[in-house]
Design a protein that fits this description.
The structure holds two protein chains of two kinds. Chain A starts with a helix and ends with a helix. Chain A has helices at residues 2-16, 20-53, 59-68, 74-85, 100-125, 129-136, 141-151, 153-169, 172-178, 188-198, 201-232. Chain A has eleven helices and no strands. In chain A, helix 2 (20-53) packs across helix 8 (153-169) and helix 3 crosses helix 5 (100-125). By secondary structure, chain B is an alpha+beta fold. In chain B, 26% of the residues lie in helices and 36% in strands. The longest helix of chain B is centred in the middle third of the chain and has 17 residues, at 169-185. The chains are: A mainly alpha, B alpha+beta. Chains A and B meet through helix 6 and helix 7 of A and strand 6 and helix 3 of B.
């Protein structure tokens, strides 16, 4: 396996020399996935609250459907986004196809089921007494829901870690929604795909290692945050 | 104006009726204890009074407002009350922040909020815990936090569901001291549910006995414990001597009752032929080695069946035609040489008996 070793050496070199193009691609990957997480969080946290705190017909069915979508193929989401935002699609007038903005939207859609489902599970896992206690002490239903979300914050962080991991590592959607345009929508995963197709296995491996390194650093940082919060509460 | 008025309140869950026809009121500043066995409906009643649940039928008036719509529509009213639930939880924050939550929810400004939190920490003697996180508090500390958190909004009605259940004796004492201090101020109407009858006696102005979803009796603690109005209440409050009989004669408020062939005299106003229950507290029974010519109207010879010794007191069970229990000091037990099988004379006053119609 000389490619692995050579890939490792190349990765070290690219990192040590702060290769401009690699840094730019890595930065773009990080920015797109982070923004996608932020968008998904803004949408999913209130939505999870609405689903958890209200009883309505087919609620269980809806939660099951959300959980089913945890494993939706990235390429399928990419296809849907492509069809929606292509020139002839219903959202084509926005002119977002092959832009980083659409990659953010696509990744956000991809990870929403995970973040939504895990946040609902986190809320359900909390003692029902939290919201009941808040209400019995004078909180409105909305204030009680906010408190419950706050109480579940470390579990919600786990959902975000999962979502970020899925977003930064996907390739099908980034290719279909972003088009892998050099200097514009190329991310680490699409670059790996391209370099592999071109036969530059060493560079592909090096980019893969950089991707893993970024994912590792982000995960360690979020886990430390979670750990600190958990220690604080005990 | 009563702070709480419940008229014929019932609550059903599906086909099972958990509360039946509760009639109840509480005056401003009154402390009422609701006692009853587990599953009697105490928690359901408190949840209804705390606007966490709605009666299935009946009328409920809280602080002058009749509850007719969904409980969610009475946020303003709910903010004039607080409820400490059974086995309360502390929110995942510091003791101080936990106290601040009810004030934040009511839109109290930061300066006033901090001043009130500080004052509450001092009142409850918990200043040392201010910065401690919820997860580090003991059961007793969490209970005191829950009470302090409920009090900080200065509620007009405070509801407490089993505030000392599962606590060690020291923590029970601390919580009771805190409650006694609040009760003494007479600013808050307090409804506390407990299964500890002595706690109810110590804390409350009136005691309500709940059994199987019914409020059987609401009276002063003395009346509950010495003059229960039903055999169920008598049994629950530990009335150990309960007899059944038929009134043979009545003479100016003094009745003669046939109890298992023995004539027992008691104060009551029922006619001859009425079937009655008679209740007698063991501490009102006196034992003698031989018949004494005292003021007690009832004196019977009997044989000691059993003796239980607990601490400084002994419980002596005697068969004098009907079973009767007496409490004597351990010293008296030894001085009188009381032993199982010995014959003693049992004596009790007509005034010590409480008589109710069957």
């Amino acid at each position: 396996m000389p490619e692995l070793w050579l890939g490792f050496l190349k990765a070290l070199k690219l990192l040590a020399t702060l290769d401009r193009e690699v840094m730019e691609i890595a930065g773009r990957s990080l920015a797109i996935s982070s923004l996608a997480c932020l968008v998904a969080m803004v949408v999913c946290l209130p939505l999870a609250g609405v689903i958890h705190f209200n009883r309505f017909p087919a609620r269980r069915l809806l939660i099951s459907a959300i959980q089913t979508l945890y494993g939706i193929p990235t390429v399928l989401v990419g296809l849907l986004v492509f069809l929606l935002f292509s020139r002839s699609g219903p959202m084509g007038f926005l002119g977002l196809l092959f832009t980083p903005a659409l990659m953010v939207i696509g990744q956000a859609l991809l990870i929403m089921p995970v973040i939504l489902g895990l946040t609902i599970s986190a809320l359900a896992g909390l003692d029902r007494k939290v919201s009941r206690t808040a209400v019995s002490l004078g909180a409105s239903r909305f204030q009680a829901a906010l408190l419950t979300l706050r109480e579940a914050r470390f579990m919600v962080l786990s959902a975000l870690i999962m979502g970020f991991g899925r977003a930064i590592s996907e390739v099908g959607l980034a290719l279909m929604a972003g088009g892998n345009i050099r200097g514009y929508t190329r991310t680490l995963t699409t670059a790996i795909s391209l370099e592999t197709a071109k036969g530059d296995i060493e560079l592909a491996l090096a980019l893969g290692m950089i991707l893993l390194l970024i994912a590792l650093i982000i995960n360690i940082a979020l886990n430390r945050l979670q750990q600190a919060g958990s220690d604080e509460s005990h | 104006m009563n702070h709480i008025e419940a008229i014929d309140v019932s609550r059903s869950f599906g086909s099972s009726e958990v509360l039946h026809g509760i009639d109840f009121h509480a005056e401003p500043g009154e402390a009422i204890a609701i006692i009853g066995p587990t599953g009697a409906g105490k928690t359901t009643l408190l949840q209804i009074l705390g606007l966490l649940d709605k009666p299935s039928s009946g009328r409920l008036k809280l602080l002058g407002t009749e509850i007719t719509a969904s409980v969610d529509s009475y946020l303003g009213l709910r903010r004039r009350m607080s409820f400490v639930q059974q086995k309360p939880i502390a929110f995942n924050a510091s003791f101080r922040d936990n106290l601040a939550y009810p004030l934040r929810w009511r839109g109290v400004g930061r300066t006033e909020r901090e001043a009130r939190v500080q004052a509450m920490l001092e009142l409850t003697g918990m200043s040392g815990c201010a910065r401690r996180k919820a997860g580090t508090l003991s059961g007793g500390e969490t209970q005191r936090l829950a009470i302090a958190r409920a009090l900080i909004s200065r509620p007009e009605i405070l509801l407490l569901d089993e505030p000392t259940a599962n606590l060690d004796p020291d923590s029970v004492l601390n919580v009771e001291r805190l409650l006694a201090a609040i009760i003494q101020e007479r600013k808050t109407t307090i409804i506390v549910s407990t299964h500890d009858m002595n706690q109810a006696r110590r804390l409350a102005d009136r005691v309500g006995v709940m059994m199987k979803g019914r409020l059987m009796q609401v009276s002063s603690p003395d009346d509950i414990f010495s003059a229960p109005q039903s055999i169920e209440v008598a049994g629950f409050v530990g009335m150990e001597n309960m007899f059944s009989g038929t009134i043979l004669a009545r003479n100016e408020g003094l009745v003669t009752v046939d109890v298992a062939g023995r004539e027992v005299q008691a104060l009551a106003d029922y006619r001859a032929g009425t079937e009655v229950h008679l209740f007698l507290r063991p501490e009102d029974v006196t034992l003698f080695q031989r018949r004494e010519a005292g003021s007690a109207r009832n004196s019977f010879a009997g044989k000691i069946n059993r003796i239980f010794i607990f601490g400084a007191l002994s419980r002596v069970e005697i068969d004098c035609g009907f079973p009767i229990a007496a409490l004597v000091t351990r010293e008296s037990l030894e001085d009188m040489g009381l032993a199982v099988g010995a014959v003693v004379h049992v004596s009790f006053k007509a005034t010590a008996l409480h008589v109710i119609q069957k």
